[in-house]
Amino acid sequence: MNKKLVTLLLAAGIAVIFIATGLQAGTTVSDSITMDYNKYKKRTKTPPKTAYVVFTHKKHAEDYKISCGDCHHDKDGKPLALKTGDNVQKCVECHTKLEKAKQKKGEKEDILVLENAMHGNCVDCHKALKKEGNKNAPTACGQCHVSLTKK
Questions:
Q1: How many CB atoms lie within 10 A of CB 30?
Q2: Superfamily in which the 31-144 domain is placed by CATH
Q3: What is d(CA 143, CA 151) in angstroms, rounded to the nearest whole number?
């Protein structure tokens, strides 16, 4: 067989594998997502006092009928038109600041700080649900940040 033809077929085969892998990668979402970003080291001198927050992705999407765009948004905060199986980035891919800076009085929180973004997204939504009468939406710190020290 011609060397050029073999090279072309090999390149086409590799391209098909990469495309298939890329398509498959965007179609799986964990039922629960643990917010344990390795780069996010808030407490460095003492062990953490609370467990990592576990977000029940499946429950929010299926049971509570929260659309993907309610959490996943573009750089302007507009909801993305996503559906189950679409490839989405983790919060930390865009909200890249992993430590809070000192905030001046009256200054708006920096939304690029991962903690601010997650608290803003989750807590603000839960508070709105509480106003609508949903008593199950946790808004107190200890309801999501489960203590590791209490016995």
A1: 10
A2: Cytochrome C3 (3.90.10.10)
A3: 16
> Does this model's pTM top 0.70?
no
Can you read off the two tokens belonging to residue 139?
Answer: 């808004």
Helix, strand, coil content of the chain in percent (nearest 5): 40, 5, 55
| pLDDT one-digit tens code per residue, 54-79 | 888 888 888 888 888 888 888 888 99
Query: Which contacts qualify for 108-114: CB closer than 8 Å, 24 or more apart?
Result: 114/37, 114/40
Contacts of 68 (CB under 8 A, 6+ apart): 61, 80, 82, 83, 84, 86, 88
Query: Which two three-digit tokens encode residue 71?
Result: 């959490």
The ranges assigned to domains in the chain are: 1-29, 31-144
